[in-house]
Amino acid sequence: MADDIRLYLFEGGTVHLPEKNHILGGGENFITTPITWSVLVHPRGNVIIDGGNAPEVAVDARRHWGRILDISRVVMTPDQAVLPGLERIGVDPESIRWVVQSHLHNDHTGAVAVIDRLPNAQVLATRTEFTWAQAPEGFVAMGYCPADYVKDGIDWFLLEDGDDGFDLFGDGVLTCWFTPGHTPGHMSLLVRMPSERAYLLTVDAANTIDHLEERLIPGFNLMPKEAGRSLKRLRYLAWREQATVIPGHDPDLWPTLKQAPEFYD
After folding, report:
1. pLDDT digit string (tens) for 27-46?
2. How far apart are CA 19 and CA 40, in angstroms?
3. What residue segments make up the domains of the chain, in order of their start?
4. Which fold has domain 2-256?
């Protein structure tokens, strides 16, 4: 069983953004952060977690993302999209059973953007995030790309408020934990391997280890109080499971992690 379960980490490009957008109180200097996504290989069907950017971003990012690129810059090559990534690790798109969306920001919807090429996949998200992302309000709307996920042909599987801790396969390998704050319906993922090693994908609930430990405050959280509670929950989960923490956009930690075709098991 252990040989059949593997966690692959991918870089889907990088974003250059003002430090103040990454760290509260930061300056105008630009910093570079990785865009990350994952694949969990499982005997009962493979899982894409988020999926990074849509492939269109590598061709014409401004056309696909719009005005968010007035305040940031994205760098992506075509081979950093989901389908080439699957090919590199020998995973057939037809074997993808689930696309798990931590949330629906534009740098996390690369798999649902190509859902027509993943014919057996359902898309898992919280109902709160799904509802919010249909018509996000105010300036935060620029962080969403509805072209990726507001379309026919998506088989949504939406988690309700009472589904916190949802166990996707029923075997404890992948559980979904509600961590709102960055967005209303954000969730983080805990991966437990048969080897008893555990990996906590905090995604954007904790962009970096410094954010997780509250040494620094993120530059953007839609709901700051909820974000603080989510950080405490993540620290508890990491402690309880003795988990390796994998933040969503940590420029210092990311180069030290195994990246596909290497994997964790």
Report:
1. 678 889 999 999 999 999 99
2. 32
3. 2-256
4. Metallo-beta-lactamase; Chain A (3.60.15)
Specify the 3-state DSSP secondary structure of 158: strand
pTM over 0.85: yes
H helices present in the chain, as ranges: 19-22, 57-65, 82-88, 127-134, 146-149, 209-212, 224-241
Alpha-carbon distance values, 258 to 50, 115, 152, 246 (Å): 18, 27, 36, 11
From 55, 138, 47, select the one nearest 93 (Cα to Cα). Answer: 47
Q: DSSP strand E in 45-197: where? A: 46-49, 73-75, 96-100, 122-126, 156-159, 166-167, 174-178, 187-192
- Is there a contact between 24 and 217 (Cβ–Cβ < 8 Å)? yes
- State the pairing for strand pair 46-49/73-75: unpaired
Which two tokens mark 253?
């930690």
Strands 46-49 and 122-126, by their bridges, are unpaired
Q: What is the pLDDT of residue 216?
A: 79
